[in-house]
Write a structure and sequence with these properties.
The chain has 133 residues and is an alpha+beta fold. Helix content is 34%, strand content 29%. It is built from 4 helices and 5 strands, in the order βαβαβαββα. Helix 1 packs across helix 4. The longest helix is centred in the last third of the chain and has 20 residues.
Amino acid sequence: MVSGYVYEAQLRVSRRGRPATHFSVSRTPLRDVLRERGITEYAVVDHGHDMAATGAPAYPAWTLIFGSQAAGAQLLAYDPAAAVDIPLRLAVIGRDGGSEIVLRDMRTLIDADVADGFTAVLRGLAEAARERV
């Protein structure tokens, strides 16, 4: 863990021989898992595309921004200042011809008694996506 980020290396998503630079988060099982669980997807940020548009090196990295209104309400009831950290995010980073799902351990943001449940949800989503590959 570096700065609260957990690299779920064991959740490597194979792209079946395609270079990571050709990977597209729009085709990942992760987005399917979010839809199937009734979780609202708010945005997909394509960092590489945005960087390339400015002439900067284009890293194969995407951030999925999503949430559940019921879970958000639970978190805000605990601490309204947590609004700065929701909706939740998972990153997908192209690496070594595949990709990794990266999440933030929620203990870095809020107390463990509340955070552990949210971190478990993030890990569960990543695991469900990995099982589909």
